[in-house]
Amino acid sequence: MGHSIMPRALTDEQVKEVRALYAQGVRTAEIAERYGISRPTVLKAVPAEERRPRGPWKPLAEADEVVAKYRSGQTIVALAKVYGVDTTKIRRILVEAGVERRPAKPPALDLPAREIADAYRSGKTLRAIAAVYGVTPDPIRRVLAEQGVETRPTGYAPSLSSEQKEEARRLREQGASTLELAERFSVSRAVMQAAVRGVRGPNSGEKTRQTDAEIVAAYERGISIQELARRNGMAHKTATKVLQDAGVTLRGLGAPRKDLPEGEILERANSGERLTDLAKAYGISDPTLRRVLREGGFRFPRSR
Questions:
Q1: pTM above threshold 0.85
Q2: Residue 297 has pLDDT above 60, yes or no
Q3: 100 phi and psi, to 5 degrees?
Q4: For the chain, how many structural domains are there in total?
Q5: In the chain, which end has fewer C-beta atoms inside a 10 angstrom radius, N or C?
Q6: Does one domain contain both 229 and 260?
Q7: Helix and strand element counts for the chain (H, E)
Q8: Is residue 303's pLDDT more than 80?
């Protein structure tokens, strides 16, 4: 005996009624509609051994009528409801009749077409406009197509004119944030940060950017690239590029930041002292210690 899983949507009494109706030959779709449940829920209420075997495909007597109504504009869902069958059967009728199915039509949205077109022409992106109206970019793209507006290629990044940069710097001095300015001029935050770099707003905690010459001089005094980037509010890659463009030979990664008695360290390591103890004794990191030893020809023990 198989056991069915009782759907949560039905009470014990309703399960019994569903089984009885199903046993009497009532169609699954009719039972589902009567109880306001889905057809799978009806079948879950009926034990597997009590379910009717699926018979061969039976064409619908009103097939020609279905085809005609579909061609007149009725949807598959509506036709399935009218004839009391599932949508799969309607689709099969249309396929056998050689009817080319219409593409699913997206729901119509009441969007201000001219306003959207103007916003896009001014430089705003599809995603930014879509966010304003609470939709995905696809409806915005359709509106633009209907307005005859050609969309920009993917990867387009709006830039700023000299006049816009000058205005942005003026507004930045008055206290506008880079994010606010980016939204106002419809550009990315990175573009705006580059445009107003070095401009400090009132009561701003931002650091004024050093000149390239000052950055080079600081690096040659021993300041790390990471610290230079932090002081100037720039990315590590940007600080590195400033130095490289100035022809500065960069220090190797992990180079000791202070004078170390390398001979003494090497001697203690060769005597068998633990590397962790050595690093702690000289106040250096494990990578720095290993570099010193490696350059001194120390032979690290192989791990088993």
A1: no
A2: yes
A3: -80, 120
A4: 5
A5: C
A6: no
A7: 18, 0
A8: no
